[in-house]
Amino acid sequence: MPILEAQSVQKQYKLGRVTVDALAGVDFTVNKGEFVAIMGPSGSGKSTLLHLLGGLDQPTGGEVTLADKKLSVLNDNQITLVRRRNVGFIFQFYNLVPTLTAEENIALPLLIDGKRLKDYRARIDQLLALVAIADRRNHKPDELSGGQQQRVAIARAFITEPSIVLADEPTGNLDSKSGEEVLKLLRRSCDELGQTIIMVTHDAKAASFADRVVFLKDGRIVDQLKLNGARGETRKILEHLKVLE
Length: 245
What we know:
By secondary structure, the chain is an alpha/beta fold. It has a single domain (32-58, 74-244), classed as 3-Layer(aba) Sandwich (Rossmann fold). Helices cover 36% and strands 27% of the residues. It has helices spanning 46-53, 76-86, 102-112, 121-130, 146-158, 176-193, 204-207, 233-244, and strands spanning 2-15, 18-31, 35-39, 61-66, 69-70, 87-90, 164-168, 197-200, 212-217, 220-226. The strands form two sheets. A six-stranded mixed β-sheet has the order 6-7-8-3-9-10, sandwiched between helices. It has a four-stranded antiparallel β-sheet with strand order 2-1-4-5, with helices on one face. The chain is globular, with a radius of gyration of 18 Å. It starts with a strand and ends with a helix. The model has no long low-confidence stretch (mean pLDDT 89).
């Protein structure tokens, strides 16, 4: 059952008198519980697509349907509400509030949505345990390592039980060990929580944790690769990337 669909999605930007086609008619479907990686050369439209899928920007043409809602017929306030309640975001640079503790950062989306924290205490505790930072719950971001901060960001993205989580280079600012731990955590969230994830990455090893890799070039989907978790998947991804060069 598709949880997100993009139909003939286009995005154009004006640079002076020049029109740039960031996306040139993308058709894309993601099913519930699927982990999809998006790859492609710099400037291929990866982050642009991710922003459109999450309702952070509006397409020039085409339609994005998120959690059974067509975003083109909604006003800005309605899109904000759909995004807040259906999408979790994980960014490369964590985007944590420096004055809040790990636990408070995780709970922030609930407060923004007017929820009572006491009703979500069990959920917060579950996520602290899932990302293995329960013993750091009262620490502020500057008291946490980069990997720990990204774990907080992941828990924050999951707190509202969103339909889908969008991750933009989630391991791009981490060392290899911390990055692999984060990727294993994302994989577990799909396998154990049924979470749906779309991840933009330039790293073939990171993409190998996904169920499917979508390759973009010049604003178009030019290839897809289904993965099965077997050894050698990173090599297969690299082979597909070479074709795009």
